[in-house]
Amino acid sequence: MRMIMLKKISSTNLLRPLSDASTDLKKVLNEKVPQEQERVKAFRKSHGSTKVGDVTVDMMYGGMRGIKGLVWEPSVLDPEEGIRFRGKSIPECQKLLPKAPGGAEPLPEGLFWLLITGDVPTDAQVKAISQEWAARSSLPSHVVKTLNDLPKNIHPMTQFSAAITLLNSESEFVKAYGSGVHKSKYWESVYEDSMNLIAKLPGVAATIYRNTYKDGKGLGSVDSGKDWSWNFANMLGYDNPQFIELLRLYLTIHSDHEGGNVSAHTTHLVGSALSDPYLSFAAGMNGLAGPLHGLANQEVLVWLQKLRAKVGDNPSDEKLKDFIWSTLKSGQVVPGYGHAVLRKTDPRYTCQREFALKHLPEDSLFKLVSQVYKVVPPILLETGKVKNPWPNVDAHSGVLLQYYGMKEMNYYTVLFGVSRALGVLASLVWDRALGLPIERPKSLSTDLLIKAVKA
After folding, report:
1. What is the CA radius of gyration of the chain?
2. What predicted TM-score, i.e. pTM, was given to this entire model?
3. Active site residue 339
4. How does it assemble (predicted)?
């Protein structure tokens, strides 16, 4: 058996053409799916027995880090360059993807088109998605009632997961599967569910926000002439144009981070059992709620508040270093720094920093974050225990939300979840289009693993 050498692929090699002129996304996919099915079929026929990697004992005990075991089309994470969405870096997406009139940040609708088709969409195609999501956005009465009846002390992510699960009552895939539709058509009803779910998520998330923090008052409505992020901000009760631009950026850069992270992998895994997109995505959101995943941006802010209380708003570098060393010597980590895959500053951190430099350069919390960015990496390198001393996306996102008045840290992971739907549901459509089977890796006991190593 031959082994495939996985080399770094340049962005030039990965560039894809502009999408065709149709504004009907499902029509575009109907043309692409058969072509991709044939391409994958031919590849598997000629290279199905080719090895792509080896598994070590450390990988098995260490959370399967580095094991190549998933197919994930929307994005790939490069240790040096960071995330690429269908071959496009974040700066490239910021440049190429359509924007709202007068806006500077890419519209998430455009990123979704890119993630699910591989093509850069036109302005007309993005506008069509905005209109389609607005038309699909209404929530079933039983979901609204359930959210309104939940006690305010239930965590927003628990409410979010519960509401998504309840939306399963609307599943087109469940209906199609029950009617005996051929498996080659599974992707079509999964697509419909995914489009409906993405359209409804801002309404679910905004209802949770207004109920939990604003006594259920002031929930805005959907304007069919506006984009997805504008409508989300309006429902949340925010009308600051800069906040809306931030939300467009936030929902774009948090959308996907290849398939091995907990929320993406869980959605894929549950979907592989032919659970519908609502149940699959709800499972993914339960994973996102963990402190080692989506809850991390909240932990960064908690740490920054402790830092601020100890050293003030304008500490010397020496005071900052003393606090950081104290944190590390107590057995804690500096939250927001380091990443399981990345070995440089997360480009999602960088684009948020650039947004802050443009819109809030004098904000005291942003200045503190910038100082931490200067001081922490050399300290982490000095410990000799950290492979990546650079900040990830969580080190910055909460600071921006705080500046624009969204102070409720427990809610931040819900925003992350709304964004993550774009990537994981785009991938779920392709899982069914390619007929990927139920996921069932082989496990071993420690005794059997020791025996296998001795052999």
Report:
1. 22
2. 0.92
3. yes
4. Homodimer.
